[in-house]
Amino acid sequence: MSEIFNDKELELEDYWRAIILRGRNEASYKFSLAKTLLNLKPESGQLIKIGDLAPLFSSHIAEHLKKANKQGKSGSSPFLDSCRRFNAGDIDENMLIDQTIRFGFDSVIKAFHVVNQAPTSIRFFNDERQENKGIRITDEFSALLEKQQILNLPLEVESRWRLVETSWELTLPRGVLSVNYDLDKEVLFTIGGEQKRINITGCRDALNGYQKGRCFYCFSEIFIDKSNTPPEVDHFFPHVLKQHNFGSLIDGVWNLQLACKDCNRGESGKFAQLPTLRLLDRLHRRNEFLILSRHPLREVLMQQTGKTPEQRIVFLNDFYNRAKEILIHQWDAKEKFPPVF
């Protein structure tokens, strides 16, 4: 056994987040199916007929078509066209459900568990369409519903969906897409046609899954549900640097993470101090993790920090040394739980 490396045992949340955050995105059907399952909360062993999935599944797609008319790379399909016709009042709900049963599940059920071109070893349902005209819920999905992180997962699905559909909807090349952070409203936004601002998603919702539902600094669990005390959106390099000619880059996604209140501004919190080099390394690893995922934040991070890993290391190191001249004081985190990223 290696004395240097440890092989982390993956949790059910890790598999779910891998599917939602890093699975293929040819169309938004995966997000709709995920939301439908989280809404229905089926029990282990339960058979859900396609006809029972169809109403919620189609309603999620129809609602998102009102926000972004392109819900896939191809832009059009019999199912999407039916959802558009329903939104326009040309067909009723019964007709939409019939069309959803015929066309809505052709590939999404087969592809749902595929990550990095291979199926995950954990499955949240089994495909029984041929035998029983539905899907069979596994023990793993029921166990997922019992996890504390279930409070975060629906918001993470919605956030990822908004990011992906925005990248499809905008006519800008992906490499030109710019995502900005609104400090007051705590949302990520971009600028579309005619310089119109488009709010994409809440910053907490977008980042939480990539931090595995943990504080960036102490690794205590955080919950983005508004009914709980939400984590705080923290600038790793403090926002005060904006006053010292560091510019709007301070508000870039690369410099944002989620922290618990104690770490951010508690009695021994970070406030406007500079985190240590140990934590800078963690920021770099978090950003590299984001860059390896397949959604617009990858392009944004590369625009902000560099196209190659080597360039990104130089960028962070230079930024760190410039910030140190201004801030002087350094701060290190007290980890309450074992590191998870």
Question: What's this entry about, in short?
Answer:
The chain contains 14 helices and twelve strands. It is α+β, with helices and mostly antiparallel strands. The chain folds into two domains: 12-146; 149-331, no CATH class.
The total count of helices amounts to: 14
The major sheet is characterized as: 3 strands, antiparallel
Number of domains: 2
What is the number of E strands?
Answer: 12
Name the overall outline: globular
Distance from N terminus to C terminus (CA atoms, Å) equals: 22 Å
Elements, N to C (H/E): HHEHHHHEEEHEHHEEEHEEHEHHHE
Proportion of residues in helical segments: 40-55%
SSE layout:
Layout: H1 12-22, H2 29-40, E1 47-49, H3 50-67, H4 78-87, H5 93-103, H6 108-111, E2 114-115, E3 118-119, E4 125-128, H7 129-132, E5 134-137, H8 139-145, H9 153-169, E6 180-182, E7 187-191, E8 197-202, H10 203-208, E9 232-235, E10 256-259, H11 261-265, E11 274-275, H12 277-292, H13 296-305, H14 309-327, E12 330-331
Helix pairs in contact: 1-9, 2-3, 2-9, 3-4, 3-5, 4-5, 12-13, 12-14
